[in-house]
Design goal:
With 440 residues, the chain is of the alpha/beta class. The chain has helices at 3-17, 24-40, 45-59, 62-65, 70-86, 113-125, 143-154, 167-181, 198-211, 226-239, 256-265, 286-293, 299-309, 312-323, 329-342, 345-349, 367-378, 382-386, 393-403, 407-429; strands at residues 101-106, 131-136, 158-159, 185-190, 215-221, 243-247, 269-273, 281-283. Helix 13 (299-309) crosses helix 15. The two termini are 26 Å apart.
Length: 440
């Protein structure tokens, strides 16, 4: 989502770092460009104005002007202000397993509430909770069916009544069912509208009074930019929700909502949806997001994803092979299968310090392409798989014929192999925090 903003800021700060000595005019000129980049990213105008003023006040101070590396100091200040803008204190939701926890999701229709319910259920089940999904959206066609389908995928029960239009009765049944089946977490999917209306607000308020939720999450579609921020403000005025879930953060949008919503509502972002799969939900960390936006990577999130997805023994063997420069085609095949479990490659790239958004732009590992790659590798001799440098023109033609692919596809695969090898070296060469390491 922030790729365009990251590229613009990267260009601005490269010019700034290239100057051995900064003047007040240098800083003001750079900040004008930052201001323009933020406005183009659909960040609220008032927020941008305050943000730039605060940075300028600090950046023109003596600590920067007399610094040995003033450009780096300005970037440090920008990062600190980004963290402050998105929320210095990260909200952490802990749900004890010895009591009945209740979460309500609210927001407009199309914001992704129903999917977010399933993602939250999956997230907290991994932490030891026993979730129960409650279908209280009785208006949107197929909303109940969608939640039931997601419940089946997770093998979780869903409380739903197709003929019942009274959401309070549905909620009451869910509360009783949770007691008899010993569920310690109820997640209520509420109805949305295409716009805010009095009837919707009255219904969710009545539900809130009955359920007495521990947490109310406002679900906002990050793709809608400032519209999401304005809707969040109106919901907060009525419901006083606890935190925000930003969905569709993997989309090709400008990202202004993520940067503005905390400052406008005063409520923190708790989770972000990073993809369409049930497990594509992450806790939000403002400091990590600020680093990603500025192209500094996010090693901690990368480590967490890797530790969830990678086979530890395989990872240790792979690391040894990388150190001995023995990375071959079978290693490559195994590696991309492992990395696919971690999520889209472009998202992972943004977590690696120093890797820009254009790196590995040609590398995609869709299921269909993966089958072609397998066919290409299995058409090689054992000797060729272990010695990539052997693949001259005639060998490539033989491999293309044997795998049912073209020479162009074989050449593209070899290019991907070299790019992956380069990326793996970048991974293995990064200095990790004490006591932590990347498992590949």
């Amino acid at each position: 989502m922030f790729n365009e903003l990251t590229d613009k800021l990267d260009g601005i700060f490269k010019k700034l770092k290239g100057k051995g000595k900064l003047t007040e005019d240098n800083i003001k000129e750079s900040l004008r460009e930052v201001r323009r980049a933020l406005l183009e990213a659909d960040v609220n105008f008032k927020i941008v104005k305050n943000f730039i003023n605060e940075i300028q006040e600090r950046a023109i101070g003596q600590e920067v002007m007399k610094s040995l590396e003033p450009g780096h100091q300005v970037i440090k200040i920008v990062r600190e202000q980004l963290v402050n803008l998105m929320g210095e204190t990260n909200i952490r939701i802990n749900l004890p397993t010895n009591r009945k926890n209740k979460i309500m999701l609210v927001g407009l229709q199309g914001s992704g509430k129903t999917t977010a319910c399933a993602k939250l259920a999956s997230f907290f089940r991994k932490k030891g909770n026993k979730p129960l999904l409650v279908a209280c959206d009785v208006y949107r066609p197929a909303a109940i069916h969608q939640l039931e389908t997601l419940g089946k995928q997770l093998n979780l029960p869903v409380v739903s009544k197709y003929q019942e239009k009274d959401v309070l009765k549905i909620a009451d049944q869910a509360l009783r069912q949770a007691d008899t089946e010993f569920h310690d977490l109820l997640i209520f999917d509420t109805a949305g509208r295409l716009h805010i209306d009095e009837i919707m607000m009255k219904e969710v308020n009545n539900l809130k009074n009955l359920v007495k939720p521990d947490y109310i999450f406002f679900v906002a579609d990050a793709m809608t930019g400032q519209d999401a921020v304005n809707v969040a403000k109106e919901f907060h005025n009525v419901l006083n929700f606890d935190a925000i879930i930003l969905t569709k953060m993997d989309g090709d949008a400008r990202g202004g909502a993520a940067l503005s919503i905390k400052a406008i509502t005063g409520k923190p972002v708790a989770y972000i949806g990073t993809g369409e799969k049930i497990n594509d939900l992450e806790e939000f960390h403002a400091d990590r997001m600020a680093s990603r936006i500025l192209g500094m990577g996010d090693i901690l999130s990368l480590i967490e994803k890797a530790e969830e997805s990678f086979d530890k023994q395989k990872a240790e063997e792979m690391a040894k092979r990388m150190r001995k420069n023995q990375f071959n085609f079978m290693d490559f095949l195994d590696q991309i299968q492992q990395i696919k479990k971690m999520g889209p490659l472009d998202q992972l790239m943004g977590m690696i310090p120093g890797m820009n958004n254009k790196a590995l732009k040609d590398v995609t590992f869709e299921d269909k392409e993966l089958k072609h790659i397998e066919a290409i590798i299995f058409s090689m001799t054992h000797h060729e798989r272990n010695n990539p440098s052997l693949l001259n023109g005639s060998r490539r033609k033989r491999i293309a014929d044997g795998s049912g692919t073209s020479i162009q596809e074989v050449n593209r695969f070899l290019k991907q192999f070299e790019q992956m090898k380069k990326m793996m070296k970048n991974f293995s060469g990064k200095k990790m925090p004490k006591g932590m390491s990347l498992p590949f």
